[in-house]
């Protein structure tokens, strides 16, 4: 066996592979026939191996996600006979989220009114002298709670928008799956029978 590889900008061929060339790309040639028998790519560097490992893991996760999505889609088609059934199921979740949003907005409105009342009280006290520490503490706590509830409301609104997007996406996949499983309406008419010969 002859080994050939590039080294220092020139082609090197030897009947033994030195340790310095083990990681290089090389061609192995049969001594008897002179025909190349094997092509070996160069060894990957540590950085390239790391990149390849990350890419392989990403591909594995993608394949796993696609497989899970297919299973969910099949379960969806089996669970809901019609599109109306699917919409009804989402409707229950939507109604629950809408009620939660309504309660959060009402709670925020009450918090604002309460905070305004405390601020007015603090304004009246300030005209007469220093504001009581307890009142100042209540205002800070009320304001902090108001900010917290506002953030909760933002999250709930995002969940509501995500649910609507999920519904539209599910409906699209549901229609595609139903269309794919519907049998093709290709009915062929029977060939006409040949006319009977008239009696002679």
Describe the structure.
By secondary structure, the protein is an alpha+beta fold. About 65% of the residues lie in helices and about 10% in strands. It has helices at about 45-80, 85-130, 135-180; strands spanning about 1-5, 10-15, 25-30, 35-40. A 4-stranded antiparallel sheet has the order 2-1-3-4, with no helix packed on it. The model is unreliable at about 185-190 (pLDDT under 50).
Mean pLDDT, as a whole number?
85
Strand content: 5-15%
N- to C-terminal distance: 90 Å
Main sheet overview: 4 strands, antiparallel
Provide key terms for this protein.
200 residues, single chain, 64% helix, alpha+beta, elongated, 4-stranded antiparallel β-sheet
SSE arrangement:
Blueprint: E1 2-7, E2 10-14, E3 26-29, E4 36-40, H1 46-79, H2 83-128, H3 133-181
Antiparallel strand pairs: 1-2, 1-3, 3-4
